[in-house]
Structure prediction request, 1019 residues.
Amino acid sequence: MKKCYQQRKVIAIMLFLFLTVHFGAMAQSLSLQGTVKDVKGVPLPGVSISIVGTTQGTITDIDGNYSLEAPGDSQLKFQFIGFLAEIVSVNNQTTINVTLKEDVVGLNEVVVVGYGTQRKEAVTGSVANIKGEVMREVPSANISQALQGRIAGVNMQQTSSKPGALMQIRIRGSRSLTANNDPLVVLDGMPFSGSISDINPTDIKTIDILKDASATAIYGSRGANGVIMVTTKTGKKGKSAQVTYNGYQGINTVFSDYPMMEGSKFVELRKLANKYTNGVDEADDVNTNWQDLWYRNANVTNHNIALTGGTEKGSYSFSTGFYKEEAVTPGTDFSRLTLHGSIDQEIGSYFRIGFSTNNNYTKSENGMGMYGVLSMSPIADPYDADGNWKRTIKMPLDESWNQTKDIVNALGDRYIDEKKAFASYNTLFAEVKIPGVEGLKYRISLAGNLRTTNDGNYTGEGIGSSNATTVSTAGISNSRNTNWVVQNLLTYDRRFGKHSINVVGLYSVEETLYNSSNVSAKDIPADAFQFYNLGRAAGEITVNPEYQNYEKSGLMSYMGRAMYSYDNRYMISATIRSDASSRLAEGHKWHTYPALSVGWNIANESFMSDITAVNSLKLRVGFGQTSNQSVKPYATLGVLSTRPYNNGTTYSTGTYVTELPNNDLGWEFSKTWNYGLDFALLNHRLSGAIEYYITKTEDVLLGVGLPPTSGVSSVTQNIGTTENKGLELSLNGVILDDVNGWTWDVGVNFYSNKNKLTSLASGQTRDEGNWWFVGHPINVVYDYKRIGIWQEGDANLQSYEPGGNVGMIKVQYYGDYDENGIPTRKIGPEDLQVMDLEPDFQGGFNTRVAYKGFDFSLVGAFQHGGTLISTLYSSGGYLNMLTGRRGNVDVDYWTPDNTGAKYPLPGGSQSGDNPKYGSTLGYFDASYVKIRSLSLGYNFSQKIIEAAGFDKLRLYATVQNPFVLFSPYTRETGLDPETNSYGNENAAVAYSDNMKRILTQGYNTPSVRKYVIGIELTF
Prediction:
């Protein structure tokens, strides 16, 4: 596949392959060395160099360097896909530098496949790759935001719209019910124990994602949910010191206000509902936009500076970065300071050592939530007669604290909610080439990681409360996570003529230790104390045992992998790995995982030589097994809880069993078949891949509820099975290739994943308490199905809904009818239905157009079908009560003159404070097409920047999240259709515990548009 020049510059790492055959009858051999570059001076890794007429040769390293023994009168042939072959006579030279010219075909990428690299043409598993500079086309705090919509089969969903928030990452769907479904992150070859937001996107060189089990089985129990391989930037051997600056400055603005009613509409609603009269602070002629009094234009800034270089046998890279993003709501922001460094040094001919470190300090400040703003009456006046802010706002039944940005900004020490974290991830390695056995080397890597967090919150007296004397509260929460890994790797890598073999053996051990504590207190003596001395609190000090944790777990692993290729036509890869986890029961700790994949480069067959339209065609088939041990440590031992009680005149603490032990708790297994076809057509102008997979997960880890008579609530068992299957298509095209200075590249990916439960405990087909149903996806909603609004003259209203009214929500009835067509019962729990949430398909698209120094790029994402749950509109949000009690979402509600409305009659049939069946109002079609970023840049010409002493100078402007198309939710509400909360967050009342695992659209910090201007400078 032909890539643009910028993509070619960052070809991923290939290991040295030394192919040496001794010819005693040949002329005197010389020790040759040199560098291979393209016409723009960029070093080319992976160039094949052979001595003409022999099978002896080598390959350039990541910096384009090579060394080779060759006769002084021989010729060298330099070959690299995407470039014209070059033959050079040695003529007794010892240094030969070569510049290769580009051919019409594209570069053959090198991808990271776990414990090594491989040419993409030879990969037999499902591996996706994206370059760092491509990913950075979307300015973001972490890589998960930048990857959204870029890779088929990889779904990234927002868990929060606050700055710095993580995204939920699912590679080919969810498999487990209660265990972790997150993928493994591997940073520079070592399993990463931190948060993905700890990694500075500017430091990233490439990201490779292993999707199928034949690729991920090399990580055994860690690879059940896919693997994200992150490779950071390194220095270059033989290069003088180079400094690079990359930074941008921007502003966040509200994508769209939450669609709350303005004053006159609210007055009309309240009168129609006829339930409440105006409160003390309300008047019909007032119209207050509380969101205008709350939002701000917020700054975002990002600065990164790096120093790279190297010596003849070594390289170094150091960088530091600072990122800060403010939310459009006051008191909410995220900042991060990072420090990255790496050193790689050869010692003599056989030894190599290196060190890498990634450190960061982050601070998140969480301001007040949005409910106090959105629920405020629009006809309430926030000012008193003198023009000063009122302390509270009195509505018909509610008195709420006056929440505006000016009031919150003036609080100072009286309100704070912050989280600080420090993390350090460090790896030291040593590598030795085994003398006398060419291609054999041993490497030991030691990783030591630390992450600490310190949370603190303080709310002063009366803050956020209608009562001015409500006592102050404060709390602290601290945690520490330490992790160490020792990894031993033995690699044999050789080429023999048309045969290529790579064998890897691994032994590794690791240990993770986590502990946390939490203390809260009331009635702090002074605001200045905040949360720093809870022991001085005059009120209750609480140390809840449920919030104090200590966990220690370990993993031991053996792994072997062999990859063989013949004539670049037939490939096979076989892996076997054994893991032992301390989390599982005795006798069940060990398990062995096999994987096998094969590939056939059909285009390299002789019968394809005359089919010039096909440049590449590779068929792949793979099978593998992985597992999941993501249960909490000590889950096999059961759980004891405590409860205080009084024993006469004294108080004691009792202990009781809440979860039974399980001495048979074992692994959760996933078996995957993957079928893939890679292709490149029309001189590599069109390339892509199509894949189909099916994954079956057995012995699913599940907390099984027990009857009250057992005296225990649950036990964790291996019960249940699930299935995932899907189809993925990725296409990349070169529309214009330097036509009068114009280039134009496009890319698009589609994918569809369908998961379902195939069995549950004890042969059940339904677990209504947990919303798990055989034959349906893991995440569903169990609720009534809304089919409209009851209209005047509709039959059987009182039979279905005794006491109901015209204009109320109409839901589907699934019962029987008598001979007169009358329902035999009223609407009830028997009519609850299982509603799938999964989309039909989703994906992303991108394009880049360049002319001379200018370039323009667009990145987008799309989704078709599925269900978006909006707590803004449903019962739990308390913003669509349709009674006039508090502020209400601006909806088209039913009246006798507006019978075609979607929403019910204000003040009609109620269930608690909300319309009956009000939860059904929050379900929307989740389809959308979203433009995620638009960027315009200019690269100054070499002539200009060299005169200024620079190597590179680029200016760019980017708009992130500019607009949304074809979204029913956006069309009705104006809001961004992406999720921003878990189902138990950002809602006025608690939802079912089942909603905790479902992402929703809640009233979180609003989505934003981001406008940035940036510069990239190298000198």
Q: What stands out?
A: The first strand starts at residue 29 and ends at 38. Confidence is low (pLDDT under 50) at residues 1-27.
